Structures are given as C-alpha cells and as structure tokens.
Amino acid sequence: MRLPSPAKLNLFLHITGQREDGYHELQTLFQFIDLCDTLDFSLTQNNRITISPEIEHLPTKDNLIYKAAELLIPFKSDPTFGVDILLEKQLPMGGGIGGGSSNAATTLLALNSLWECHLSLERLAEMGVTLGADIPIFVMGFSAFAEGVGEKLQKVEPDTPYFLLLKPNCHVATGQIFADKYLTRDTPPIRISHALKLDGHNDCLDVVIKHNPEVNEAYLWLKNHGDAKLTGTGACLFLAFDNLRDAERVKSVTPQKWQAWVCRGCNTSPTHDVLNQWIEQNRV
C-alpha cells in the first residue's frame, strides 16, 4: 500500500486557556494542502516493524510512525503480521504543518486495513491523540473547526485557494512557544460561523518571531505580497492566492535561502482519497 501523507495549515489559531495538566485549550481551523510525504507499507509475517530510511538523531522507537504502529499491535487479526515502512520525506520538520502527525495518522489508517484491525476512524483518532494533538484531524480526513487541544472536530468546507508556503531555515520547538510566559492564553472563544470569516490571526505569531529572527524576516518579506500568516507554532508561513499564476509569480522572487512551495488547499485528505481506492480495489 502506497499512501500520500499531507501537510495541514492552521488558517487561524487562538489559545483560549490552559488546563491544569499543562495542555492548552485552543480553537483553530484545519485545512489540508496537497504537499505530501509518501509512505509505502509492505505486509510481512515476521512480527516486526521496520522503518527506512532512518531519520538522523531520531531513534526508530521514538519515531511517531513506529509508535503509531505499536498502538495497533493488540488489534492485529494475525499475531505474526509485521510491516516494512518506507518513508519518502518532503515535508519539513519543525514547520508547524503537522508532518510527523500526518505520518503517524497515515500509519494508523494503513495498518488498520493491512493488519485487518477493523477499528473505526473515531477509535483510531482517540488512540492517535495520545501521541499528538494534531493526529485526529489527519485520521478523520476532513477540514475542521477544532477545539479542546485540537481533538474536538466539526467538519467545515472553507475555500480552497492556492497557497505559497514558505519555510525559513530554522526549526521551531513547539514546547518553547507554549511555555513562553508572554503567549496569549485568554483569547475569547468564538462560534464556528465566525471562524469561517476570520482574517487568520495566530496567537503564537508574536512569540515565534521573538524567538526566531529568521521567521520574523520571512514574515516581513511575505507581508509585502499580501496577508501573510503563520501556521501552527511555525516556522512555516503561508499566503493565499486566487489563482496559480500569482502564487507562482511570488514564489519565483522568493529568496533562495528559504524553501518555498506552491500548493492547493484540500477539504478531504489525499490519504483518504487513495486509501478508499485501495480498499475498493481489494474488496473481496
């Protein structure tokens, strides 16, 4: 099974409070983009989970892909089932676009079918949130207004513009941003109807650019071309366009020291599109 593993954008991100356990309450609007990693899953009967290539400075057992696969071991229809996973990485790490969470969710979805676990999407999402707050949105596979720590999802269908996605040459540590005493944690909650009309404010922006001068530089540059926004806790920034031509034009003048992609918003995850085709083709 070969599946795309897409990135996501936070079209806005409000921090509405902090719980006693340290997690932050938030409201956000998730949308997928058609920029993807790719994962190949080969079913084995050696009861082993292998991932290649190895990611530098990340032991296999700390990889979210491995941890996601481990969650499904008790539900395998055959205890001898294993899997060889090949990861083709395109999404940058530390960019706030959910690459690791997407890879973990794609693994849950793939192995649920390959290992014949027969778990519902809701159950997979419940299991996935124990590994990361963004995993449920990738498991469920639809654009959503999210609350709680990001796991309470209501399906929405925002516009699907073209985006210029920009990655400064730095890695933003989510923990550092959420631990900063100057992070706004009291934004008033809003209704879903209001969320769909927002201009894309991100409560993390000021803290991110304070700690990361490269993000600030890229943000100021991108603002010259439109309403620049930060996704998640960064480092990636994005700008929406009505047409592909304008997005490509701005990309063509982007300083080469930053990574840049032109992509399209998607209200259904590309993972689900391909997985559903696979299930249909392999239906007995």
UniProtKB/TrEMBL annotation:
<dbReference type="InterPro" id="IPR036554">
    <property type="entry name" value="GHMP_kinase_C_sf"/>
</dbReference>
<keyword id="KW-0418">Kinase</keyword>
<feature type="active site">
    <location>
        <position position="134"/>
    </location>
</feature>
<keyword id="KW-0808">Transferase</keyword>
<feature type="domain" description="GHMP kinase C-terminal">
    <location>
        <begin position="197"/>
        <end position="252"/>
    </location>
</feature>
<comment type="pathway">
    <text>Isoprenoid biosynthesis; isopentenyl diphosphate biosynthesis via DXP pathway; isopentenyl diphosphate from 1-deoxy-D-xylulose 5-phosphate: step 3/6.</text>
</comment>
<comment type="function">
    <text>Catalyzes the phosphorylation of the position 2 hydroxy group of 4-diphosphocytidyl-2C-methyl-D-erythritol.</text>
</comment>
<dbReference type="InterPro" id="IPR014721">
    <property type="entry name" value="Ribsml_uS5_D2-typ_fold_subgr"/>
</dbReference>
<dbReference type="GO" id="GO:0050515">
    <property type="term" value="F:4-(cytidine 5'-diphospho)-2-C-methyl-D-erythritol kinase activity"/>
</dbReference>
<dbReference type="InterPro" id="IPR006204">
    <property type="entry name" value="GHMP_kinase_N_dom"/>
</dbReference>
<dbReference type="Pfam" id="PF08544">
    <property type="entry name" value="GHMP_kinases_C"/>
</dbReference>
<keyword id="KW-0414">Isoprene biosynthesis</keyword>
<protein>
    <recommendedName>
        <fullName>4-diphosphocytidyl-2-C-methyl-D-erythritol kinase</fullName>
        <ecNumber>2.7.1.148</ecNumber>
    </recommendedName>
</protein>
<dbReference type="InterPro" id="IPR013750">
    <property type="entry name" value="GHMP_kinase_C_dom"/>
</dbReference>
<feature type="domain" description="GHMP kinase N-terminal">
    <location>
        <begin position="63"/>
        <end position="141"/>
    </location>
</feature>
<dbReference type="Pfam" id="PF00288">
    <property type="entry name" value="GHMP_kinases_N"/>
</dbReference>
<dbReference type="GO" id="GO:0016114">
    <property type="term" value="P:terpenoid biosynthetic process"/>
</dbReference>
<dbReference type="InterPro" id="IPR020568">
    <property type="entry name" value="Ribosomal_Su5_D2-typ_SF"/>
</dbReference>
<feature type="binding site">
    <location>
        <begin position="92"/>
        <end position="102"/>
    </location>
    <ligand>
        <name>ATP</name>
    </ligand>
</feature>
<dbReference type="GO" id="GO:0019288">
    <property type="term" value="P:isopentenyl diphosphate biosynthetic process, methylerythritol 4-phosphate pathway"/>
</dbReference>
<keyword id="KW-0547">Nucleotide-binding</keyword>
<dbReference type="InterPro" id="IPR004424">
    <property type="entry name" value="IspE"/>
</dbReference>
<feature type="active site">
    <location>
        <position position="8"/>
    </location>
</feature>
<dbReference type="GO" id="GO:0005524">
    <property type="term" value="F:ATP binding"/>
</dbReference>
<comment type="similarity">
    <text>Belongs to the GHMP kinase family. IspE subfamily.</text>
</comment>
<keyword id="KW-0067">ATP-binding</keyword>
